[in-house]
Design a protein that fits this description.
The chain is mainly β and about 280 residues long. The chain has two domains: about 5-165, Immunoglobulins (Immunoglobulin-like); about 175-270, Immunoglobulins (Immunoglobulin-like, Sandwich), CATH 2.60.40. Helix content is about 0%, strand content about 55%. The chain has strands at about 5-15, 20-25, 25-30, 35-40, 45-50, 60-65, 70, 75, 90-95, 95-100, 105-115, 120-135, 150-165, 175-180, 190-195, 205-210, 215-225, 235-240, 245-255, 260-270. The radius of gyration is 23 Å and the shape is globular. This is TRAM domain-containing protein.
């Protein structure tokens, strides 16, 4: 008899800027974003470097997904090739399953072949998931026969973002979808939802500048920085708790680098400290 019962808890690491991701026994040492510029009909290759930091062999599986995210907190990992700007169908990779020896290293080779389509423009992307296979998982290569086991296992996976830029093409457009205050915990937090409505990814840094009725500056307040793919959205948060009570003109700025800036003007009236 070979019966196994368990609960598998999964977690996902998606890297924006981190060069190395490591949890459990596996690390992705070559980073979690693989961006390359190409032309229609062009191709390129690369590798994803892996390391087993543990003292036992670690089985790993690699598989493709699409990836979308939104300001309301949703993260969608769809079937490969279903997202409007997915490049999943352009990517081949190997191996799809491997076992990394203790303290050993391995690599996943990938190749990207861009279709010869002159209508392609902007940014296309998808993910290769790198997932450690628990020894308790029914997927594990080595299973102990004639044994009943019960337990809970935690599985960590890493989302390697595979990004193809079609030259310097594609429009750069940003839309301010919603602006509101979150007064949780007595703070005056301005939440700004921003959507990329263009065809090229953007990496805006957001800030808010407040001015009195007389035009005097009441301060500049940073709201963070984030990457936004076409058709996705993010939520920025700027703490305006330090602004004294009164009425202010505010300029919300999303600086995408170079000459690419987007702005929205607002009027805020603060009745008391920490409250709009």
């Amino acid at each position: 008899m070979n019966f196994k019962w368990g609960i598998i808890l999964t977690g996902l690491l998606v890297g924006w800027w981190t060069a190395t991701a490591a949890v459990a026994g596996v690390s992705v040492t070559s980073g979690l974003t693989y961006e390359k510029t190409a032309v229609p009909g062009g191709s390129y290759t690369g590798v994803i470097q892996l390391k087993n930091t543990g003292d036992a062999p670690q089985e790993v599986k690699v598989y493709p997904t699409d990836y979308l995210f939104y300001a309301d907190g949703r993260n969608l990992y769809g079937d490969p090739g279903t997202a409007p700007r997915s490049n999943s169908g352009w990517i081949t990779f190997a191996p799809r399953r491997l076992v990394i020896p203790p303290k050993g290293t391995a690599q996943v080779d990938y190749a990207v072949a861009v279709p010869p389509d002159d209508t392609l423009a902007g940014t296309y992307w998808s993910m290769l998931m790198v997932e450690a296979v628990s020894t308790a998982s029914p997927e594990a290569v080595k299973q102990q026969k004639d044994r009943i086991s019960f337990g809970i296992s935690q599985v960590m996976r890493y989302g390697a973002q595979m990004v193809t830029q079609i030259g310097d093409t594609g429009t750069r457009e940003l839309k301010f979808v919603r602006t509101r205050f979150d007064k949780a915990k007595g703070r005056r937090i301005l939440e700004v939802d921003v959507e990329n409505t263009g065809r090229q990814w953007l990496k805006p840094a957001l800030w808010v500048e407040c001015y009195t009725a007389a035009g005097a500056s009441a301060g500049r307040f940073e709201g963070g920085k984030s990457r936004i793919y076409p058709g996705t959205s993010v939520r920025f948060r700027a703490d305006l708790s330090a602004v004294p009570p009164g009425e202010y003109k505010a300029l919300v700025v999303a600086d995408c680098g170079g000459d690419t800036l987007f702005g929205a003007a607002h009027t805020f009236r603060f009745r008391d400290a920490g409250a709009p």
